[in-house]
User: Fold these one by one.
Assistant:
Number 1:
Amino acid sequence: MLIVDAHEDIAYSALVGGRDFRMSVADKRKNDPGDSARGREGQATVGLPDLLEGSVAVVFGTLYASPARSQFGGDNASGYATPQQAEAQARAQLDYYRRVADEDPRLTLISTGRDLEAHLMRWSSSGTAAPLDKLGVGLVPLMEGADPIVKPDDVKRWFDDGVRIVGLSWGQTRYAGGTRAPGPLSDDGKKLLKLMSEIGMVWDVSHLAEESFWQGMDIFQGRVIASHSNCREYVPTDRHLTDDMIRALVERDAVIGCVLYNRFLRADWTPEKGKHAVTLKDDVLRHIDRVCQIAGNARHAGIGSDFDGGFGAASTPAELDSVADFGKLAPALKDAGYKPEDVEAIMGGNWLRVVKETLPR
Ligand SMILES: [Zn+2]
């Protein structure tokens, strides 16, 4: 069974957090126990060797430019203040993915249907007995927050350079309202969505403000996803999706990736409660099951872990220490009554469907 994770801030962690993607989680933890100066990030949970060990065949790797001064307060010396600086940050991250893929056969960038077919062929023809190094991880570049797109027209160039998914916001951007920043699409945001429809860019609505979401659903004609969002019913903040939003996404054949961050899984979770207070079989299942119940099938739920995206192993569900453990979700789904084909769909098949249907030949 192949696993797909629709959200990992790999390049940002490497370039800003000093975490080399090629290193295993265990080696990263030796260098940085995660409770030091970079402690906000916590203990590392992502590594290329660990993805392979966990049969994570495909990840959506983000280009995430960090705002210099966010609405969450405080200054960020390494963040961007101008669109050009945001562009430079995202450019450096795309270059990082390219460089690792050039130098290390264990990483493949996926930007066409042909790339994906060849990559999946390695996994299916080699079988589980193949040495992990031969299989490799496929990475689809996803831009989280569109400020690096200096003018809407530039999205074409990003597409030519291999970016296949764009989310308009994180917090507020020049294009849309975002998390803790309610508000509509700007004129440029509307223009950007029209251009994205035309060129076949997938639209990621995670982090989008609700008003921008509903406007965009009218304007954008292409494929929509929510790479990493949970159910607002259980965690009532604007970071997550209402049932109406989930219903509208299902109508567009979207997939919604479940964020495996305890704070986003249980509204009452605090670090003092410890990682064991949140589990796959209760909490992760509850979010995934709600999406499936709303949809009436298992075609729209997936994983969007956000691992190494600002939280560490101490803030992930009890059963998960790193990306190598995602497979433990499968028995939890099975025990809850999901059929084998539904388990496979949620673990990766649904994301593969979206990617297959949207990548250019
Ligand atoms: Zn995010």
Number 2:
Amino acid sequence: MSNAGSDMEFVHYSVMADEVTNGLNIKEDGVYVDCTLGGCGHTKRILSRLGKSGSVIGIDLDGDAIANARAAVKDERLKLWKGNYKDIREAVRECGFGYVNGVLFDLGVSSYQIDNAERGFSYIKDAPLDMRMDQSGGITAADIINTYPAEKLERIFREYGEERFSRKIIARVIDRRQIKPVETTAELAKLITEACPGYYRKEGHPAKRCFQALRIEVNGELEGLGTALKEAIELLVPGGRIAVIAFHSLEDRIVKTTFHSLESPCTCPKDFPVCVCGKKPAIKIITKKALVSSDEENEKNSRSHSAKLRIAEKL
Ligand SMILES: C[S@@+](CC[C@H](N)C(=O)[O-])C[C@H]1O[C@@H](n2cnc3c(N)ncnc32)[C@H](O)[C@@H]1O
Ligand SMILES: [Zn+2]
């Protein structure tokens, strides 16, 4: 199968697919929102558990993912919506629904986006430095690298990439961009590698943290995630479930704190005998500890290693 954006096959191994479908407690006639459609793996699993009157709303920012789904999944129970999951409320309404029975977020980039060199996400494959999930607009990674002030770049590399050598890397980038803009993934990966000590290579490719950080900044991956989760939970019917897979600690922290704030919203001082603030729990957390993928799955898919799945139920 090929897709509209390139000749590349749209392959994506769906992380913790059984745990997600079981965790969503799928009802045959329910309405489910896959907020991160990607290669449709999870969506196909959900569809396989639905009866004739069930529906899935598949959301993705990436036009390639939507085009692929349109070509690959001929199923009238699937409604496609190209856009940001931050607008889940609008997506659900425009697809003709009020409330939903389950919502899934499988955060981050798809393997298609990483493996498709021309999208510019990979530090191993040379391509223009792009990294936009939504290629219809917005700033690219090259724009950020060539125009952001040093302090802002450093904060991004440190906070989003937890990069120890961010100062050295930025100094090198700034020297270079004064002569000529950094335009490709290979140029940036080389500058980063040159700025880091040789022993650092033992911890994986020296560019991996900065590339992750840039990707998060380009796509605004952390901004608004907590709000999107809250909106999704508001759309759930009582007993409906939300499942979220996060791939790094920054994302997972947002999921965890958002769930906690909705499960225990009471703001009364601890020594009050009864709650007087009146804030009632909206959810019950099903996964007290995040679920991780099995050894068997980790052997098949390296991406699963860092996955953390959290599930909650609307009260
Ligand atoms: C990890 S992949 C999902 C893979 C999918 N679960 C599967 O089984 O094939 C994440 C997808 O979410 C999309 N995405 C990331 N952030 C998004 C956002 N804010 N709104 C909508 N889609 C987003 C990406 O474009 C990507 O296709
Ligand atoms: Zn209270």
